[in-house]
Amino acid sequence: MKNTHQRGRPPGSSILNEADTKxxxxxxxxxxxxxxxxxxxxxxxxxxxxxxxxxxxRKWKAExxxxxxxxxxxxxxxxxxxxxxxxxRALDESAKAARAWLDKPEIKRAIDNARRWADxxxxxxxxxxAASPETKRMMENAxxxxxxxxxxxxxxxxxxxxxQVRALIATGHK
Length: 174
Description:
mainly alpha; 174 residues
């Protein structure tokens, strides 16, 4: 006759289950933050007992992938927060450097001189001229002149002025 009774504790009734689950969750978070081998992650959470390592490795094979998936959101939020904090720190440093630069006496003098010049009759006249339709027209013409000086436009003009193209245009071919 077979003995159907198993030896030892029933599966899942170990007094270490709750503690092991907490350790495995920590290990999953460590691995999710920075991919590494399971044994390395165990050392990172201070588990060195060989019996515990063996027991946790067996449980990790069963529960590890699910624990890693559950920590993906946490790790993504942490990385996003780190990126934001780094960006904010860099922005604050840039603003501090800009303020320090603007506080230099020679920069303050240059800004004051520029303001005085802009408020002068000559400055006001130049500002009105820069905003006038005539100046805008001149700027457009300058852009067209620069474009016309480009090698592609010059080749196109040469092609359009060639005798072959003129003959085609004269005969009405399209």
